[in-house]
């Protein structure tokens, strides 16, 4: 059951907000910070906290673009997409045994 | 994205230890408390805390059996199995879109 240990200790995805961010980003690849706020119904401070952890762990990149006003974009990295899919796949395999 | 909101707010499964407990129990249906401890590498107090939440939310039943000495058994409920599978299935669908 090494997989299960790893899942439980997975710092990046072992939180529903962070898992939710990745699940939302995967089919879109990127999203506006303000759209993530709406979708996940969390506060800006809370989302910011979780995004910093995902960024530190290499799951997302966060940057600003300037249209009429500055917008924060959150983009899933290739590595983040791969790791999240692998995380979910492992869970599915474990419950299907 | 109502599914994603629900996932993020899912009190029972929105924690890696609790999700790990359910993922371990589903193929086995029940396990000894002491085996869960080993598999998940958590402390007894930590596991007990999370099991109480799962029990309160109807995901598991916890009871003692007496062999040579008392043993605590954790058993997944039908409802808990169904809800956990549904939770994982929804995540998979969301990332496959």
Structural class of chain A: alpha+beta
- Stretches of chain A where pLDDT is under 50 for at least 5 consecutive residues are none
Number of helices of chain A: 5
Helix content of chain A: 55-70%
- H/E order of the elements of chain A? HHEHHEEH
Number of domains of chain A: 1
Instruction: Please state the CA-atom Rg of chain A, rounded to the nearest Å.
Output: 14 Å
| Large-scale geometry of chain A | elongated
The total beta strand count of chain A reads 3
Q: Which chain pair has the greatest contact? A: A-B, 32 and 32 residues
CATH-defined superfamily of chain A = Winged helix-like DNA-binding domain superfamily/Winged helix DNA-binding domain
Our measurement of the CA-to-CA distance between the termini of chain A, rounded to an integer number of angstroms, reads: 12 Å
CATH architecture of chain A: Orthogonal Bundle
CATH level-3 fold name of chain A: Arc Repressor Mutant, subunit A
Largest sheet of chain A: 3 strands, antiparallel
Q: What percent strand of chain A? A: 15-25%
Query: Order of strands in the sheet with the most strands of chain A?
Result: 1-3-2
Provide mean pLDDT of chain A, rounded: 90
Assembly of the depicted chains = homodimer
CATH C-level label of chain A: Mainly Alpha
């Amino acid at each position: 059951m090494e997989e299960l240990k790893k899942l439980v200790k997975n710092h990046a995805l072992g939180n529903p907000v962070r898992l939710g961010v990745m699940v939302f980003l995967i089919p879109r690849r990127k999203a506006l910070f303000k759209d993530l706020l709406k979708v996940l119904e969390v506060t800006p401070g809370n989302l910011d906290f979780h995004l910093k952890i995902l960024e530190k762990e290499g799951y997302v990149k966060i940057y600003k673009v300037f249209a009429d006003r500055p917008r924060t974009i959150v983009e899933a990295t290739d590595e983040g997409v791969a790791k999240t899919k692998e995380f979910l796949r492992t869970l599915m395999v474990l419950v299907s045994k």
